[in-house]
Protein: Glycosyltransferase
Organism: Chloropicon primus
Amino acid sequence: MTTRDGILKASLVVLVASVAITLLPRSPHLVSLQRDQQQLEKVLRRMEELVPSSSSSSSSPSSSSSSSSSARTVEEEGRIASMKRNDDEDDEEERIPKLLHFTWKTDDLSAIPKHFRDFHLRWKEVNPTWDAKIWTDDDILVLVERHYPKWLRIMKRKLLAPVVKADIFRYMLMDRFGGVYADMDMEPIKPMEELIRTLGYPTCILGQEPREHALLLEEQEVLVCNAVLVSVPGHPLWQEVLESIYLRMTTGWMKYHPNPNPVELTGPKKLTQVLEATNEKLSGACELLEPDVFYPLADNSASLDKRCISLLKRMDHQGRGDSERARKVANACGRVLRALEKQIQRAKGLQVEPEYPDATYAVHHWTHTWISRHKKELQSHV
């Protein structure tokens, strides 16, 4: 199926959903979805003008991703691992330890929001032979004082955003202890040991955010997420990341950027930048996996439909509507459209069971506890 055919099919889905919505009480949520739907219909019309059907078939969502980066699917990695790791089966020293790391204000499960608590307990069910620990704010300062003393003054700053501290600390956990770090809104699907074994016991595993995030939000090909980190202790990537952040925070940059974007300062954009600059040089390079492994869902709160409109209008104005990038954006917007259709079904009260790819080992639910507008919703789960 060509990109254009896929877009037209998705457009039909949205139009059918639109008719259904008009028969329902116009709740504020449905009205909002209907507005989003109208915006996406405009995007579809724009796509039909911009993306020639004769050339779009070369760029399907599944095939284009691996060619734009060094990422491989789990199946590809497994085949490679079976060829190159046979002699290392008894080498336990470089194995990823069976440790699960989480961070929260408290380790009292009764005080943790219910959906986070359920995910945490599920991690232990899916990985029964692994040790799990929730690191608290007090734990963070103790570990920093003992093992990363030069960071103590920074980590004690009251004005430093908690999400920045959390990002820094997860890199420290990987550097010091290794294992698996996971955000509290990560839902486990399959055992981590199975993934590690399939990949041939690598020393570091990272996953990409959905292609929609990279292309539509950051306008780049690849965005490495830090909601799940898998590593042996002492992997050189973590010192590279920590040193890059430390230099930025201690050389005057913060004076001119008092409210930096955490995504750029310590989060996914920083991790992507350091990985791209150093991964080929590192001893034991990280395995960078496709989005389906850890991040099969896009962030519904990220206004991706509006980004579709903005990007396509700009491409049209610049005369780049038939470019390879336009085709990739078209594919990404098609996925946004399908996700919106599921939101509409849920708003109508229909049961929509999540459908995850076979390659999925965990699912990030994009709760954004560090963004103020999400805090009221979070409190309702306590």
About this structure: DSSP finds 19 helices and eight strands in the chain.
